[in-house]
Write a structure and sequence with these properties.
single chain
């Protein structure tokens, strides 16, 4: 190990520290209290990647900071751009692990899909990430870092004010990437609080959605502590089908999950819970399934997102025909619930969640195999 590498490893990363933690770190460093506020502004509002541009700090103090700290983002391992404007990044962390982050631009918003774990423990059979074993939880800096990398790529520093949504390319955050965020709640919550801070990354809690497969005991805590929008990966209306699609259902069946939704703090017609429903041919897409879905979500302020299945090589399911999806949507709409069909995005850039990471793992294995063969 070189001296330079050892120095880099010994420096603490300030990205990912919340207000209190950053203030405590600067106090221990012997800095005046206002220094933490200055650093917060430069790191999270202006997006500084090192200390040199922080001209409101003296050069001597900046040099001291650079000796002991760093402002590290994840490295971009691969970057793909779709013909429809969707961008997907494979991000690599200090230990070599990788996750995916996706930016989806639309006419009235720009949504960033953020990962919370490396791999996943849930093994949902329709989800490509479910084919990957859980490696570890992401740390707060690795979750916040995904947003900062996207802002870097979009050229969106300083943080635009929340009310200037029309001028933003990144307006919404969805924790719908790799992993189950409620199984990493403490780190997710720490990161989300930084993202929501109006003097930091400044994305309103109204524009942040956390998606869960149904970790029932954590749902209320999520609403009480973060008050972000809630999305439920439902995907079936019968326990026997959902047990197969979402194995977590065996622990927290549909009735318990929906009871937790009815009890979610802050849910209202203005802040409806989203029920995500992937359309699988011959599995969960019948008119009877649609009518049962309407019955199940009665009295819940809700909307339904119908998701055409995004297949990958070897996937055990097929996407429902367009006619079946339209008929399902019509039934839910007729019952008074919004039920739009999500337009598939980024299909030309390995769009299925986890697919880009799998391709990267296979490539590295292939390269190691070729290197071993040569040696």
């Amino acid at each position: 190990m070189t001296t330079e590498t050892a120095t880099e490893m010994s420096r603490r990363n300030l990205v990912g520290l919340g207000r209190e933690a950053l203030a405590a770190e600067m106090a221990a460093f012997g800095a005046e209290p206002f220094r933490a506020r200055q650093l917060w502004h430069w790191i999270y509002h202006r997006g500084a990647a090192d200390f040199a541009p922080m001209t409101s700090l003296s050069k001597a103090f900046r040099d001291r900071l650079a000796e002991h700290y760093e402002l590290r983002r994840p490295d971009v391992s691969r970057s793909l751009a779709s013909v429809d404007g969707t961008r997907k990044w494979l991000l690599r962390f200090a230990d070599g692990q990788e996750v995916e982050t996706v930016h989806i631009p639309e006419e009235d918003r720009g949504t960033l899909c953020v990962s919370s774990q490396v791999g996943c423990t849930l093994n949902c059979t329709f989800c490509h990430t479910g084919t990957q074993l859980l490696v570890r939880n992401l740390e707060p800096e690795e979750i916040v870092g995904q947003v900062m990398v996207a802002r870097d790529a979009l050229g969106e520093w300083p943080s635009p004010p929340d009310q200037a949504a029309d001028d933003r390319q990144l307006t919404n955050i969805v924790l719908m990437g790799m992993g189950e965020p409620l199984y990493n709640f403490d780190n997710v919550a720490a990161a989300v609080k930084i993202v929501m801070d109006p003097e930091g990354l400044s994305i309103s809690r109204r524009k942040i959605t956390l998606s869960t497969a149904g970790v029932v005991p954590m749902i209320r805590r999520c609403g009480a502590e973060l008050a972000v929008n809630l999305a439920i990966s439902l995907h079936a209306v019968r326990d026997d089908i959902r047990d197969r699609l979402v194995p977590l259902n065996r622990k927290y069946p549909i009735a318990e999950l929906l009871a937790a939704c009815r009890d979610y703090p802050g849910a209202s017609n203005a802040r409806r819970i989203t029920f995500e429903y992937v359309m699988l041919k011959g599995v969960n897409d019948s008119p009877a399934d649609a009518r049962e879905l309407v019955r199940l979500i009665a009295d819940i302020p809700a909307k339904v997102n119908l998701i055409p299945f995004n297949p990958w090589p070897g996937a055990p399911f097929e996407c429902s025909p367009d006619a079946a999806i339209a008929a399902f949507s019509d039934i839910v709409f007729a019952a008074g619930y919004s039920a739009p069909v999500r337009t598939p995005r980024g299909r030309d850039i390995l769009a299925a969640c986890g697919q880009l990471k799998s391709a990267s793992v296979k490539l590295r294995r292939s390269e190691r195999g070729r290197a071993a063969a040569v040696s």
